[in-house]
Amino acid sequence: MTTLAPAPLPTRFAPPDRWVRLAAYAAAGGNLAVLTYFWVSPGLRDLVLDRALAVMSIGRLAGLAAIALLLTQVVLMARIPWLERAFGQDTFARWHRWVGFTSFHLLLVHILATWVGYSWEMRHHGYLDELWRIVWTLPGMLLAVAGTALITLVVGISLRAARRRLRYELWHLLHLYAYVGIGLLMPHILWNGTEFLGQTWGTRYLWAVYLLAAGSVLAFRVALPLLRSRRHRLTVTEVRPEGPGVVSVHMRGRDLDRLPLRAGHFLQWRFLGGRGWTRSHPYSLSAAPRPDALRITVKDVGDGLAHLRPGARVLFEGPYGRLTGAVRQRRKVALFAAGIGITPLRALLEELDYAPGEAVLVYRASTEADLVLRDELAALADERGVRIHLLVGGRGPAGDWRPAGADVTLTDLVPDPADHDFYVCGPPAWIRAVLVAARRAGVSRAQLHSERFSW
User: Fold this and answer.
1) In this structure, what DSSP letter does residue 339 have?
2) pTM for the whole structure
3) How many domains does the chain contain in total?
4) Apex CA 150: angle with CA 149 and CA 153, to 5°?
5) Mapping DSSP to helix (H, G, I), strand (E, B) and coil, where does residue 271 land?
6) Are residues 203 and 339 in the same domain?
7) Residues 336-357, buried b or exposed e (16+ Cβ, 10 A)?
8) pLDDT per position as a tens digit, 162-194
9) Residue 8 lies in a domain
């Protein structure tokens, strides 16, 4: 094994996480309060005047809440570095799902309530006639229909049954239509929203929020990755097989120590010399970063990475995630990995500061052949005194992190769990089982750090 010397740890990071969280909560609450203010005066009046006006008022409130959450969704998708570090990828993933489905349901309430309210107000029109009139005569409505269709498509592919049938890269590509859908809704809001008509400051406020959200996406998902990719000039130097269907991609670049990059981070990669270069791939570092070299180890499931040639250019976004030494609370560390989830933990074992006997690795795999990077782990055990436990076997009962038939407990492997930070990476159900077992063993939530390989 060639041990990569860790890069110097970055020292110029963002403000403390608690201030970033407070600022984020204040911005979200203030935005929601202002949008609600737009509704209050006409909305409360209409609720008591007439049933048609009351239903339309409810529709307007649902529409305002929907657009507030949709703009929040855009900010969540922007991957703003300070927010990523403060809240973590797992938290953002949960929020992203909740905000997405809630905003869609509110959008449906807005459409239905507005349609019914207009139909009741225009008594001489039938429901279908009124729907036709709304779509074809009100300004911006055709764009709004197209935007709603795109958002419905994105919600459809976000359902678990649909996600299981799609590759991540295709799902991610189709997800980008959400940006277009939200943009198509904006003219309808500004041209038909009674809350904004005649209120110059209200219109300016909504445009400011929209442009801030859109600008965040352009800045952090487009401009910053392109600038970093150009500056650091990553290229593939070697593709090395590590096991059945698993390869390590070695890359070389320049001034990589100027990136806020640590072991445990993952990045979105585009390999210009391989198939599917238009799609990004989320892979963790499998070795501690060096000023001139990076490495990832991946399960190459149809991505064509095994056929990459040396010299291929690499574009990247990131780094992302909080599975790093920055969240560490204790001197001792316990790392739990399942399958290809070993990759960020192998990098952490290389970079983290610990004395012999203060680090333990529990590595779960279905077969011996699935234990990738095994020689490197053995070398780390010899060089740095890591205690390694390999758990090989088929899936155990639901909610159990151990292989079927394994007669071992968490405290057998980590005798003093409350004195350890737990870093856990693998399939979501397995991660949940490990975290539950750790909590039962007396480990505080602050000492539990996980990265879920799901989307």
Assistant:
1) G
2) 0.79
3) 3
4) 90
5) strand
6) no
7) bbbbbbbbbbbbbbbbbebeee
8) 666 766 666 767 777 788 888 888 788 777 766
9) no
